[in-house]
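Meet my pick.
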Amino acid sequence: MIRKLLIGLIALAWSPLALAQDISVPGGAGLATPVSAANGGTGVANSTTLTFPGGNDTAAGLATVQTFSAANIFSAAGAASTPAVKVTGTPFAGTGTTSFPLVYVQDAAATASTVLSTTGTALGVNAHTGVGNLVDFMLDGVSELKVSSAGTVTSGGTIVSGNGVTVAAAGALSWSGRGIMSSPVAGTVKLGNADAAAPVAQTLAVQNVVSGTSNTAGSNLTISGSVGTGTGAGGDIIVKTAKAGTTGTTQNTGATVFTFSNLGVPVRPSFTVSALPTCGAGIAGGMAWVTDASATTFLSTVAGGGANKVPVSCDGTNWVIG
């Protein structure tokens, strides 16, 4: 009897593990979860056989930190209120170096972060230089939303924000191959990108009636100055442009050419007669206001040197009063 027992123990030591009952580990319960046949089991709970093909395989234990060095596949399908994979822990809130995300994709070659959120993070990715995308969400193999390693977000659909969109101070809002809007200084929104040696002409337009639609009126474009309250006046609408300067590379300064006053009347630009731009075909019909006319005769060519304030118009050759 003793001889048979010794032979059995020796055979067990040199053969794949085969147990008749659940496997028990210190501080743990038996093997109650089925082990598939492909992994050495029978696929039945409380399996009578569990085989480790290798000589140094390790079984994962509950409540123990695990490191998986081989690929793992979870083939379970989700069920009602039961996801295939679920993480129920709480993100750790510590320092900028210890607050690892609850689920963390960490490239072994990546530099460790020192600016982690101290209030915790649910999902994090830390990649290494050379990786194309940090995240890529696909539908049937086609990318629908991705974040590149440079932080560029590319969407195949519409991005909807419930609380506005913020662009960095030096950034721009652009349409691929089309318009660009930027903000060079506080309180200024500019059509086009940063100033350049060859600026691109810009057009601000309103939606039109599509061709093929019969007898349909277009819509208005309303430009509104800031409104005040009580006795506070509203803001004017001011149109500026820059005249040519002297030879050089210094950027010229814009000057007011027309003002739509908050009082409800358009205001012509004011000049002395000598400062009026040259009247020619290019500005025929242009209007201005002079402050030193020598006469007030209607439609006479204006001359300076006086103290009369009169409106003037360019007839294509001369500035005339009226």
Residues 240 and 262 are 17 Å apart (CA to CA).
